[in-house]
Amino acid sequence: MSSQDTEQYRLFLGRLQREENKLAALTDIKNLFAYKPAGEVTTAIRDVGISKILKCVNVPNTMTVDLTCEVLKICFEKFEPGEVIKHYTSPIMYLLRHDKSCVRRLAIDEVHKAIRTSPNILPVAEYIDVFVAVGQMVTDSDVGVANAAVLISSSLPNEAYPKVLEEMQIALGYNSSSSCNLFEVVVNISSRSYDLFKLCVDMKYIDAMITELQTDDVLYQVNILELLSRLVIQPHGITYLVKNGALTKISAYVAELRSNPLRGLLIPGYMKFFGSVAHNYPKEIFQKHAVLFDIVFEAIESGDQAVMPVALDTLGFVGETVEGKLCLAALGGRYAKTVENVSLLIKNSNSETKIRALNCLAGLISIDKDPTVTASKPVDHRVTLMTREWFRTLDAKPMETLFEICKNPFPDMRQAAFVLLDAVCQHQWGEELVARAAGFVEFLLDRSIVYTKETNESKYDIIKRLANSPAFQPDIIMRLQTYVEQGPFYSESQLEVAMEDGE
């Protein structure tokens, strides 16, 4: 900014002294700074200061406060990330604790900008008070401010947490929303490293989460279960819950749900939790807590729309791994009956349920989502036999039935059918069934059918599998390989353009 602009800024600041001039003066400052280069604005602010603008957040006039926040935002945006906090630490601390939410939002956004750029941009020793103040703002009544506090507090340098977590304990004395925000930070940082998880354990946060499951607030319980579901996928998370008896305690809560009038609201949360555990550690769950799957099986059998969709998702998720499939099969007749029920839902239910059931059966049959399965390692013969039998529950002629669903005009249904077809084609028996199904290959190769991008890609992945299958005759293999070479989105119009270019 020129010296004339700087003097103009000084003049506008002087006019802020009188109440009747505040709105006009703030507007003038806003217009002066809005389109000036960052370097010029920051030079003027450092020369003249912003303390007089900051004082305007304390006036009773709401319009003046809102405009002051706009002006400060423009000023702050001209600085590099972290610079405002470094040059104006005390004002930022004051703004973070202000009684007006728009002011707090302005300040916390500036901290977020700094931490988002680099967690180490603000040295912990110098700015620990800022980090603590932000951590305590997970209790803020303004949802936007509280959410920003969660994001920032989940991304601090590790050395900040002993102090920050200690001071964040005040959130446990507030409402359930504040406690949930605190627990979200705990889960987020526990997932970062074992040392941070141990710190959370030592401060009794993990135990507090388990204890809070006994609350009468159903929504609060569901939120805690969601957070615990993320924690237990970490090796140190599940190990702790097993060793300290928390998993057994949670299992007991599940047993009590049968007599709970609100079980329809709670069961889905518990299903997701144990589904997450069983997906990653199936043996541990099936050996000691297999009874939990009675709830999943009962939900699928009952047809209760409040719990059945989550039960289908949970069963399919648990069965995605080879170990999960083997553990489920070991449950015997009850599980076999459930697979039959899933197939019945595919044929005889509303569209949403059919889609969930198709995805569930796809999870049970698929082997590609298991990281232990590799192309160089043969598939466990037990899995081959089991998955083939599970697919046969769909119909006496299961591939013909799936073929019909793949032709369904509704995109979501068709996509779910292709997901199941892809799972089936991961097995040699599936490739052979496709080869024997009259017209199925021609249907797959037909590019005139309009699909969504997602379904086109799914179909392409299936054809890529089939293109190397010994189940087909050489002429079919050649057509499949040509399709693969042309890509998922090739059209006849591309061929015509290519021919015209050649001429």
TrEMBL record:
Top-level taxon: Eukaryota
Matches recorded under InterPro entries: ARM-like, ARM-type_fold, PSMD5
One Pfam family hit: Proteasom_PSMB
Annotated GO biological process: proteasome assembly
Record's keyword terms, sorted: Proteasome
CC terms in the record's Gene Ontology section: cytosol; proteasome complex
Record has Phosphoprotein as a keyword: no
Family indicated by similarity: Belongs to the proteasome subunit S5B/HSM3 family.
Protein name stated in the entry: 26S proteasome non-ATPase regulatory subunit 5
Organism, scientific name: Trichoplusia ni (Cabbage looper)
Gene expressing this chain: LOC113500662
